[in-house]
Amino acid sequence: MDIQYTILGLLNAQPLSGYDLKKIIADSDLFYWSGNNNQIYHSLVNLHKQGLVSVETFQQENLPPRKLYSITPAGEMELRQWLLSDPVLPEIRDPFLIQLAWADQLHGDELDALLARYAEELEMQVRMLGQRRLNPWYRPARTKRETLLWSRIEERLQERYQQELDWVNRLRNEILKNP
Amino acid sequence: MDIQYTILGLLNAQPLSGYDLKKIIADSDLFYWSGNNNQIYHSLVNLHKQGLVSVETFQQENLPPRKLYSITPAGEMELRQWLLSDPVLPEIRDPFLIQLAWADQLHGDELDALLARYAEELEMQVRMLGQRRLNPWYRPARTKRETLLWSRIEERLQERYQQELDWVNRLRNEILKNP
DNA sequence: CTTGTCATGTAAGAGGTTACATGATTCG
DNA sequence: CGAATCATGTAACCTCTTACATGACAAG
Asked: pTM for the whole thing?
């Protein structure tokens, strides 16, 4: 349940409501979940049961009460333990590679069109991530080191798609030369 | 349900049993599922209901009957349609980047140890994938072009982790210089 | 004498997604 | 007048995982 640690990390910077968390996660490229209510509200209930977060409820006129969650000392310890835990390798699910694996069934022009469309999708993604880096709307910068880390993380998220694009372009050239 | 198309692709090369499919998928890096029975046997029943595969049952002494699945003409058409369908971007889930995102909580030595352990994991993965490429146990090579495609796909699977490793090493150096 | 292979299948549960439900307010 | 924002929460469903169940035979 990595989303629990994501939430703890976010609350470690500042108290937030479920609604705040949902927006941050839904709009983030790093936090790769959809940011759906089900998961977030359920996680918050769980974290509260475990005593890792505390809640304050603020009544509002004409709006449901706002529940502001804060990390507890126990939550801080739990987060720190996770930060020191064994790194996990990235999990990459790429249905396109599977498509390519069977793509020898296609004619030359169909295959090239497929690769071209994939390259186009990747270019769009690279551009989009570049735009978001210019205009981020969640990026903690409490220390110089944190600023450096976030900068390199955001760069990496974009670079991955760029490297994928470089690979497709190399492959396209090679296939054009060996018809 | 990409696993259905994975199975159709495998059956398009040769008839296979559920057990065969399970082994191929479980041992593959490209086909990223665990290869569990539940999914595979259930997918085969589904494909059969849709008329995309046919079954022949062979009775065996002292063993459960072996069900050999083959792709049907309808299945071939369905596979071809999928091959021509819109490419989907890879989905990368990297809990380590999230760990890093909050890692400014750690001391300098703890952070470097974390990065070092991640680098070590990546190196192991790169080595493992290199070994498997030398000694693959599923790799269709019906045409020159298919051989080329599979070669580039397998290279890419390894290269991704290599590029991840390069990035971590760059980051480690940078952090050592800016303490 | 335990582990692995062959070969089918079921069960339980974690994790994640989209859509629904409510209801006032504000902006274009 | 419709859509977005604020703010909580529920329901249904899909995907995927681990573990269980059966049962023979072969190899270390």
From this structure: 0.94
